[in-house]
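Revision sheet: C-alpha cells.
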Amino acid sequence: MDLFNYSRRETSVVHVGNVEVGGSNPVRVQSMTNTATQDTEACVEQAKRIIDAGADYVRLTTQGIKEAENLRNINAELRKQGYLNPLVADVHFTPKVADVAALYAEKVRINPGNYLDAPRTFKQVDYTDEEYAVELQKIRERLVEFLAICKENHTAIRIGVNHGSLSDRIMTRYGDTPEGMVESCMEFLRVCVAQDFSDVVISIKASNTVIMVRTVRLLVDVMEKEGMKFPIHLGVTEAGDGEDGRIKSALGTGTLLADGYGDTIRVSLSEEPELEIPVARKIVDYIAQRADHPYIPGVTNDSFNFLSPVKRETTSIRNIGGDNVPVVVAERLDGKFETNDQFMPDYIYAAKSIPTTLENGPDYIVDADVWAEEKEKFEAAGKKCWPAFSHNQLYAVGACQAELKFLFIPFMALTDEAVACLKAHPEIVILSQSNHPNRIGEHRALVHQLMNEGLKNPVIFFQHYSENDVENLQVKSAIDMGALILDGLCDGIFLYNQGTLTHAQVDATAFGILQAGRVRTSKTEYISCPGCGRTLFSLQSTIARVKAATSHLKGLKIGIMGCIVNGPGEMADADYGYVGAGRGKISLYKQKECIEKNIPEEEAVDKLIALIKANGDYHEEEK
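Predicted:
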C-alpha cells in the first residue's frame, strides 16, 4: 500500500448484465428505489429517473417471493422503454427469495448476517466449536444451491455485510468488530471460491465512518493474503440527508477511493434516490483527477498502522494538539464576520491587519511580519493574537517570543533547516499546505516525515478551494480531509475558499467534516436510512419533524430507520432510535433496548421527545 501515490487496486472483472464492474472499468455508480417492488409502474418510473440521473445500476428491495417475481415485469418494462441498465435485487432473511430473484435480476445482494443465520437479537448466545461448525456447514450447503442457480442464469451476486446486521453467531466469536464483519464476509467468499464462482462483488458497510474504513482496509488485507481480488462496492450506510449525508458519504467513501479501493459506490441519502447520483458522480470524478499524478516521495513511518491507526502523539500547545479535539481555523480577510454561534471557529486568520469586527470566542492569527504591531491593537480590544510564518521566514522564528506560533509549509519545503527549526521550537503549530493533484498524499507525506524525524508539532491541514456551490465544497473538502482524520493525523482543519460561499457555510462544512470523522462533536447526529420498499413510514417528513424537535441537542445521536433490517444494529451506538415496526407503526429504542413497540406513527415523534426528556437528555432551545 502506497500511502502517498494514488493508484486503483487491481481487481477481477465481474459481469453484471451489460455493465461490467472491476478491472479497468470506471467506478460504477448506483442507487436504490424506495417504491414498493410489487408496484411495477412506480418502480419503473423511479428506476428511469435514477438512470437518467447517471446511475449504472438500480437496486430494488425484494422482501418476499412476490416482490422477487415482479422483478421480471419491472425488468421487461424497462427494456421495452429502452433502459438496459442492470437491476440488482436486495435480499434479507429468506434464501428462497434470493433463488427467485436470481432468475430475473442481473445481480442479487445477500446479507451474510441474515441469509441463513437467525437475525441479530443482541442476546449473548454461546456456541461450542461443534455447534459453530454445524451452523457454518448449513450455510455452505444452502449457498452452494444458490450459486448453482446464479451460474445457470449468469447472475452476479453481492455479498453485502452491514455493521448493523451481524448475526449472533458471528457476534459470539468476534464481537461487534471489524474482524467480525470481515469474517462474516470471508465465510461466504470462501464458498464462492471453492465453487469456482467469480462473479462476486463485496460490500462491507457501516454508518460509523471509522468502522467502515477500518473494516474495508482489513477486508482487502485478508483477501490479498488468500489470493482474492474481488471488486468492492462502497458506501456509508444510513448517512442521513442534507449536508450531513453528503459530508459523511464523501468522507468515508472518498477515503477508501483515495486509498485505491472501490469499484462501485452508492451515496445513501435520506432523500429521493435520484438525488444520490450527482453526489456520487462528484465523489468519483474528484478522485479520478489524481490518476497519473506527479510522484510524491513520501516515506511511511514504521510505527504507523494502516489497518488500525491511532491518534498521532503531538505536543499540546494551548488548545491545539495533545488530547485536545481538532481545532477549526477560518479566514476573514474581507473583514466580515458572519458566523453561526454553533460553529464558531477557534482561530481566525486575518493576514496583515485587524478586522473591523472582532467576535467573542476565537483567537486571531496574523502574518509574522506585522504581528508585533497588530498584537497591541488586538490586546487593546481584549483579544489574543498569534503570529504565522511562511516557510521562507524560518530565520525570524527564534526572535519571536510568542508562546504559540504557526508555520505555513508544504511537504517539499520540509528541508533539514525546517526540521531543525521545528526541533528547536516545539511551540510551532504546522499549517500543512498542498497544491498537488493528490493533496492527501502530500499532507500524509509531511506528517510521516515529522514522525520519522521524531517531531511532535501539531498539524493543521490548510485546504484551499474556489467553490461557488456549497455541495462541491462539502464533497471535495470531506474527501481531502477524510484519510487525514481517520489515519489519526489531524490536529485541526483550515478551509480557505475563494468562491462566493459565505463564511458561515465554510465554517459549518469544517465542523461537519470533523463530526463525520468522529473526532469532534458540534451538533446532533442523525443516523437515518435512505429508505427502500421496506420502509414502513414517511421517512423524509419524519426526519424533518425529528430534526425540528431535536437539532439543538448538541452531542446526541438519534437513529431514524425505516425497518428492522439494520435498524437496531446500525444505530447501536445511537442514544435513541426511531424504527419502523409495521405499516404506520413505530418502535422506540434507548440504545439497543426497545422501550416501546408499535406506536402509531402520528404519536411517535412526541413519544420520542418524551423518552429523551425522561432520561434527562433534553433541554429547551435557547432563543
